[in-house]
Amino acid sequence: MAFSASSQLLKSSRSPIHMIRSAYHPKVIDHYENPRNVGSLDKADKTVGTGLVGAPACGDVMKLQIKVDENGKIVDAKFKTFGCGSAIASSSLATEWVKGKTVDQAAQLKNTDIAKELSLPPVKLHCSMLAEDAIRAALSDYKIKQGK
Amino acid sequence: MTSVFRSLSTYCMNKQLYSLRTNYILPLHKSLLVSTVSISERISPYSKKIKCWKCGIERQNINELFCQKCNIIQYPEVKNNYFKILHCNESFDIDFKELRGRYRHMQNILHPDKFSNSVEEKHISEGFSSLVNKAYDILRSPLKRAEHLLCLKGEIIKEDIKIEDPDYLMQIMDLNEEVERASPEELIKLNRLNLENMNNIQQEISEGFKKNDLKKVKYSIIKLRYYNSLSLHINNLLRERGLVD
């Protein structure tokens, strides 16, 4: 009796993974297959802020860079992510969103907005958090460089 | 019968074993009639008495997969300790050949095809062999083994633990980028380097467990996850380029 309960548990623990795989939202797949703004900016440039973050839970690493003009507007953004589809999609979307925004507006961006846009399942929420952390890290790097 | 149940539930409540109650009473209600003392012994993990589901004889060695009297396959007694399932010492350092040998031996005697005569025995063997597969999958991977052992020691790695070392992350990022643009020869070299790095971290984990320095173990496990992710990246590229099977 106790055993059949555990085999039920084994079965149910297997199925969610399957569900997640098949339930990737089309927007995630789109960003994964055609990622926007992949690449690097010169991190020594004073107008470039670099954010480098890692996900200790899965070993994903994400680099997000912003280039800011003299008016405090983000004119370019690039990212490089080594990780799962959701992490790539989250950072791709994040670069799209911060472009054209001011530094202060970009700081308002929430991981929940990214997760909502990409319809991320609960187990993938940390990927959107990673993107938010990356933006914050890039903004703070920029501010440090500017001596603000 | 009801009074026995009532006295047992009071016993359980008193001992704060309420959660165990439903698990233990229902399948064992027959033995309840004999004596409540034996039940309390059952509940204590130190004097667990297990009976064969088929012939009812008390089993001498619960590690045996079959009843010593009727030779019928038994339900696994341990389900969440993968070291115990494969009869290994609870240690990060394992002899891989020995583990593989034991795994193959167990799968050989537990194979569901050998129990096609009885529905129940087949059912038990299916569940048991899938459990053995799972255990082997966990133990053979250094990362999963370390995580499991940490979990058995009552520790988990929370999601918000971060490595507060930007240089380390930069190093991982650089390695990933290097892998991305590497030529086939460089890729093979990077793979070797990465395996070396992973071996060093496994050494750290092993030492951490020996000294019971679980904080260090956690930190090393996180590092190993980054290298593991890098290793997946390298292996995908090696496969794509047809450098490995």
Give a description of the structure:
The complex is a heterodimer of chains A (148) and B (245). By secondary structure, chain A is an alpha+beta fold. Chain A has 6 helices and 3 strands; from the N terminus they run ααβββαααα. Chain A has helices spanning 2-22, 26-33, 85-98, 103-107, 111-118, 125-146, and strands spanning 48-55, 60-68, 74-82. Chain A has a 3-stranded antiparallel beta sheet with strand order 1-2-3. In chain A, a hairpin with a 4-residue loop joins β1 (48-55) and β2 (60-68). In chain A, α2 crosses α3 (85-98), α3 (85-98) crosses α6 (125-146) and α5 packs across α6 (125-146). Chain A starts with a helix and ends with a helix. Mean pLDDT of chain A is 84; it is low at 1-20. By secondary structure, chain B is mostly helical. Helix content of chain B is 64%, strand content 0%. Chain B is built from 11 helices and no strands. In chain B, α1 runs antiparallel to α2 (18-25) and α6 (96-110) packs antiparallel against α7. Chain A binds chain B through residues 1-4, 6-7, 10, 52-54, 56-61, 63, 80, 82-83, 126, and chain B through 23, 26-27, 75-76, 79, 123-124, 126-127, 130-131, 134, 157, 159, 161-163, 166, 169-170, 172-173, 176-177, 222, 225-230, 233.
Q: Descriptors for this entry?
A:
heterodimer, A: 148 residues, alpha+beta, 3 strands, 53% helix, B: 245 residues, mainly alpha, disordered N terminus
Secondary-structure map with pairings?
The complex is a heterodimer of chains A (148) and B (245).
Chain A: H1 2-22, H2 26-33, E1 48-55, E2 60-68, E3 74-82, H3 85-98, H4 103-107, H5 111-118, H6 125-146
Antiparallel strand pairs in A: 1-2, 2-3
Helix pairs in contact in A: 2-3, 3-6, 5-6
Chain B: H1 2-14, H2 18-25, H3 29-34, H4 36-43, H5 82-85, H6 96-110, H7 119-140, H8 142-152, H9 166-180, H10 184-210, H11 214-240
Keywords (chain B): Chaperone
Family (chain B): Belongs to the HscB family.
Protein name (chain B): J domain-containing protein
